[in-house]
Write a structure and sequence with these properties.
Elements lengths: L16 E4 L4 H12 L4 E5 L10 E3 L5 H8 L4 E4 L12 H21 L3 E5 L23 H18 L5 E7 L1 E3 L6 H11 L4 E2 L5 E6 H11 L5 E7 L1 E6 H12 L7 E2 L1 H18 L7 H8 L7 H5 L8 H12 L8
Parallel strand pairs: 1-2, 1-4, 2-3, 4-5, 5-6, 6-10, 7-9, 8-12
Antiparallel strand pairs: 9-11
Helix pairs in contact: 1-6, 2-3, 3-4, 5-7, 8-9
Length: 336
């Protein structure tokens, strides 16, 4: 795995950093970065780590016994574990993992004497707004994922308030993309690569995005912060309109830049039909009303505080996009 060197993590003790959800997309990248900087790491996850099997210990954030075993002897916890997809059923799984899981993580931290927690929340806690939103809000989550992430933040704040020597970092990344991820940005790239892309709406809406290499580097950076509660949005600049993003991907793949469009009301109607079909059939479809709405909405976030903390991202946004495209579609991609 190619991990670009960033500034060494300051203020981290010799005890291992426990990364909950460390077998996943962001967790694997964070583990690679920390181990490259010779920071001891322990991965706690339901699934074994393919990249770092020797660092994995089975752990379920909903189960105190496995959490306590994973946390024993750790100096800090980074919690990446979450239910985050928009098609999770039953809906109770969001609360069990995101909120009840936060309660269990805090309990394990108390029992193990751990005074530093980094929690990856989400910009979903803000909801949709026509302007860039900073860390002060408004906090108006539009779906159960955002609501449970916001509730989890409250659980962690309570833990931090119990002892003035504790450090809590809450990081709210925008949509994260990168090599190996199968989220919305990958889906867009794949549709363009195979020639099945149809633009919903005008494409003028602006998007804040975050490359996984930078998100991992920022999480590592926050491990060096001092006592107190620190809240950050994380975004890689500049924001791009959906049209600009599509054109960038097309050029990178050597595809024509002409785009066919479908009106937003028609796209939403198709999304609602797919939602009905999914409920009736039990199948999952790549199109849903929520995904259409997110695709066509302005999702901009202000993230000046991350830079003010002394962090400098190791990759530019365009470099992150190019690296992802070249990794996922090496035959189709071209050098820009």
């Amino acid at each position: 795995m190619d991990v670009r060197r960033s500034a060494p993590v300051a203020g981290v003790r010799s005890e291992p950093v426990l990364i909950l959800g460390g077998s996943g997309f962001i967790g694997t990248r964070l583990t690679a970065l920390l181990t490259a900087q010779q920071v001891p790491v322990r991965i706690g996850d339901l699934r074994p780590s393919k990249a770092f099997p020797e660092l994995w210990t089975p752990c379920d954030v909903r189960r105190q016994k496995t959490l306590s075993e994973a946390a024993r002897g750790a100096g800090a916890i980074v919690n990446l574990a979450a239910e985050h997809r928009d098609d999770v059923r039953p809906l109770s799984r969001y609360r069990e993992t995101n909120v009840d899981g936060a309660t269990q993580v805090c309990r394990a931290a108390r029992n193990a004497g751990i005074n530093k927690i980094v929690f990856t929340s989400s910009v979903a806690v803000y909801g949709f707004h026509p302007y860039p939103v900073d860390e002060s809000g408004p906090l108006e989550p539009y779906n159960i994922y955002g609501k449970t992430k916001l509730e989890a933040e409250s659980v962690y704040r309570t833990w931090a308030g119990e002892d003035p020597s504790r450090t809590l970092v809450i990081v709210r990344p925008s949509v994260v993309f990168g090599e190996g991820n199968r989220g919305n940005i990958y889906t867009l790239m794949r549709q363009i690569a195979v020639g099945h892309f149809l633009m919903a709406g005008s494409g003028k809406n602006l998007k804040s995005m975050a490359y996984v290499g930078n998100v991992a580097a920022f999480l590592a950076h926050t491990l060096g912060l001092g006592v107190g509660v620190h809240v950050f949005n994380y975004v890689d600049r500049p924001d791009m309109s959906t049209k600009e993003l599509v054109e960038f991907i097309r050029r990178s793949l050597g595809r024509p830049v002409k785009t066919s469009r479908i009106p937003l009301p028609v796209a939403l109607a198709a999304g609602y039909l797919m939602d009905v079909a999914a409920r009736l059939s039990g199948r999952k479809f790549p199109v849903s009303a929520v995904r259409v709405r997110k695709f066509c909405a302005n999702t901009q976030f202000a993230a000046e505080l991350a830079g003010q903390s002394g962090f400098s991202p190791p990759y530019s946004l365009s470099e992150g996009l190019k690296r992802t495209i070249q990794f996922e579609f090496p035959v189709n991609s071209v050098q820009l």
